[in-house]
Amino acid sequence: xxxKNNVSCNGVNNGTANVSVSGGVAxxxxxxxxxxxxxxxxxxxxxxxVYTCTVTDANSCTSTASVNIFDPSVIMxxxxxxxxxxxxxxxxxxxxxxxxxxxxxxxxxxxxLFGVSPGVYFCQVSDRNGCAKITSLNMVPxxxxxxxxxxxxxxxxxxxxxxxxxxxxxxxxxxxFRSIEKExxxxxxxxxxxxxxxxxxxxxxxxxxxxxxDISSAAEGMYIVSVVSGDQKMIKKVVLSx
Length: 242
Description:
The protein is mainly beta. It folds into 3 domains: 2-69, Immunoglobulin-like, CATH 2.60.40; 73-155, Immunoglobulin-like; 156-242, Immunoglobulin-like (Sandwich), CATH 2.60.40.3080. The protein is built from no helices and 18 strands. The chain has strands spanning 2-5, 15-19, 29-32, 42-46, 49-56, 62-69, 76-81, 89-94, 101-104, 119-126, 132-139, 159-165, 172-179, 184-191, 196-203, 209-214, 221-229, 232-240. The two termini are 31 Å apart.
């Protein structure tokens, strides 16, 4: 039988593998597919990958066992100012091992910021294994004509509601929003690299508008949903998880 400990953080060689032998005739010889070849039952300082051990007993009978050591992906963190709520910030995190811990430079420990003043903010994101990523954001006052000068005040003509259900979801989502202006709105879904996954144009009405979209064929992960209506824009994240 075999056992393992996965790599804790991306690119760190701290994985371990071990084989336990029963049967045959002792003593046993061990040969791992490492470079150089390791000849003990337990090996350490491993990166991600598949490791195979061939065990040979005193009668030259052999058996093999393999372990697949997981190397977490790099933690990536993006900050997106959330218009038309210019004091709010969406933090988008992927990679590493859930759950995440958040430590903002203003003392906030939630994922997102709400109602903050202009300035530079830093956030250290740590995953379950203690792997960390630091991201920064320079919040500047908005330059949109429909906003009042007060940082936390928006015009009544703004796109003032955006909700996504279910979130997380398995691929079929509803985007619900309201726009006082009866004008064409654009709903876009992109991945974290900016690649367009879905787009639809619709004439928003003053009542709640519901747009259904299906991204079930996309890979699991986090996506960005943006709704644009005139010079107003609201952004939220949606998680595809099967």
